[in-house]
Amino acid sequence: MEDIIKHSGIIESVNGTHIRVKIVQASACAACKAVNLCKAAESKEKLIDVYDENANEFFPGEQVSLYGTTRMGMQAVLLGFGLPFLVMMIVLFIMISVTENEGISALIALLSLIPYYIALSFFKKKLSKRFFFTLKPINN
């Protein structure tokens, strides 16, 4: 059985099969009792797009739980951070051996990420089928 990622959120909008859910992502120390005295705590609001055939069962303002798998999360981290790092390091070492100038090599290595992320954006529709959340209403 796969581990489950769970977030609570509030539905912002429902449009056809598209549901936009707002979640508040807090750092681990945000739940601490000394949070008002400490400036290390932070939280961010994020909007998550969910595509569900049963979207008509949800309405804006409704509290829901978002569910995903940790495997899905690990794959997203790999595509978003792991592979770009690998691409950058490969380009860096190749360019250092070709140009023998570390500054130019570092700049070219950073610029090599632009085509990577552009290519990733071309697969956005295919990736949205692979990375998805399911919704369940929270019964108060």
List the topology elements.
Elements: E1 4-15, E2 18-26, E3 43-51, E4 63-69, H1 70-99, H2 102-111, H3 113-122, H4 124-130, E5 134-137
Antiparallel strand pairs: 1-2, 1-4, 2-3, 4-5
Short description:
The protein is of the alpha+beta class and 140 residues long. It has helices spanning 70-99, 102-111, 113-122, 124-130; strands at 4-15, 18-26, 43-51, 63-69, 134-137.
Structure description:
This protein is an alpha+beta fold. It has one domain. 41% of the residues lie in helices and 29% in strands. It has a five-stranded antiparallel β-sheet with strand order 3-2-1-4-5. α1 (70-99) packs antiparallel against α2 and α1 packs antiparallel against α3. The longest helix has 30 residues, at 70-99. The mean pLDDT is 85.
